[in-house]
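User: Here's a chain of 437 residues. Predict its fold as C-alpha cells.
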Amino acid sequence: MATIVVCGGGVVGLCAGLMLAEDGHEVTVLEPDPADPPGTSRQAWDGWRRAGVAQFRQPHTLLPRFRQVVDRELPGLTERLADGGCVRVDYLESLPPSIADRAPRPGDDRFRFVTGRRPVTEAVVAAAAEEHPRLSVRRGVRVAGLVPGPSALPGVPHVAGVRTVTGEEVAADLVVDATGRRSPSADWLAELDARPARVESSTSGFVYYTRYSTGPEQPRRIGPQLAPVGSISLITLGGDNDTWSVTVFGPARDAPLKALREAEVFDRVVAACPRHAHWLDGRPITGVLAMAGALDRYRRLVVDGVPVVTGFVAAGDAWACTNPSAGRGISVGALHAQLLRAAVRSSLDDPGELARVFDEATEREVTSFHRGQLAADRARITEMDALRAGREPPPPDPVRAGLLAAAVAERLAAHAGEPPPGTPGPDRRQLLDLLAG
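Assistant: Prediction complete.
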C-alpha cells in the first residue's frame, strides 16, 4: 500500500482521498483554508468561510453522474447527503409536453440524483472523510512546492512529496493536485525543471448574478435547468433544506446587465420569464451574488506520449475547468477521481505507466466534457452578442442540442436532431427596459 498526499480538501479532493483510502492506502489531505467544517447544514451555509474557493457560495449541483460514481465507489455517501438535507431530483418528472409516453422504463433510476448547496454538500463529504481510519485531513496547511525524488524515467523529474509554507516536508508515493481552478502547480513543476505541460487557456466572458431563496417546497420545474432567454440565460437549481437558487447570466461585456446586482432589478427580470417567475415565490436568503472571470483551462501532463512529471497527477478543476453554467464541475471531478483510483490500482508500482494510464483514461472518458462545454459556451456567447447587436443569431448549435437531448436520454432520442425549444421571456428591447426600471 502507498502513502498518498492530496492537495486540496474540496469535494473532489475529499472524494479522491476517500476512494484511495478505501483501497488501503494511507492518505493525507492538505487543505489551506483553516476552518473546520461545521456540524450542521445551517452552520455550513451561515458560518463556514472558504477563502480559497472563490465560487463557494455560487450555485453548484451534483448531477446523476456524481451519484452513479459515488454509489459505486463510496457506498452510503448519497444517503448521507440526503440525511444532511440535500434534495432528491428526478428530471423525468418534468418531461417536455411533446413527450406523451411517460410510463416508467428500466434504467430510469440513473437519471435521479441528490444535490445541495456547495457548503452543505462539502460539509457532508468532509464528515465522511474525517471518519475514515486511513484518511487524515489537515486544515490550515498550504503547499509551497514539491519534493523531488529519484527519477523513474530518464530526463523526467519525479515527485516524492510536498513542501509546506512552514518548510515541513510530507513524503508521498503519489501527490494528487486537487486544488481547483486556481491551482499553483505550474509553478511547482517549473521549480523541478519539468517540461511545460500542454496548456490551453481562455476566458469564457460570462458574468453570473445569483439569488438564493427558501420556502415550504421546491418550485415546480416547468423549464430546463439551463435556459437561453434571448440575450441572457437562466439557471434554476434546487438546493438542500428547502432552498433553491436562480441565476441570470450573460456576456461580461454587456454593461446594462450590471443593474442585476440590485435585488429589485433581478426580481423584475426573472418575473418577466414565464417558466421561471414562480422561482421567486419564496423568501430571499441572500442578496444578488455576482461572479465573473471564470477561466477555461486545460492542462495535460503527458506531452507527445511522455509524462512531464511522475509521482504527481492533477484531478478535477486542477486538470481542466470551464465556466460553471452546466454545473458539471463536481460531477466530472468525481468521475476523474474514479479513473484515478483505477489507474492507481493497476499501475502504482510503475510511476511512468501510472502517468500514462491516467492520462489515457482522462482523454478517453473526461476530456470530451471539457471540449463540449467550450463549444456550447462559444456558440451561446456568439448568439448573445448577435441579439445584443440587433443581428440575426447564427443557426442553432448542434452541440447544445445534443446536450439537451442527452439530459433525458432515450426519452428525447427521437428529438436529438432538433434545436432546443425556445424559452419565452423578454427580447432585447424589453430586457433593457426591465434593467433600466
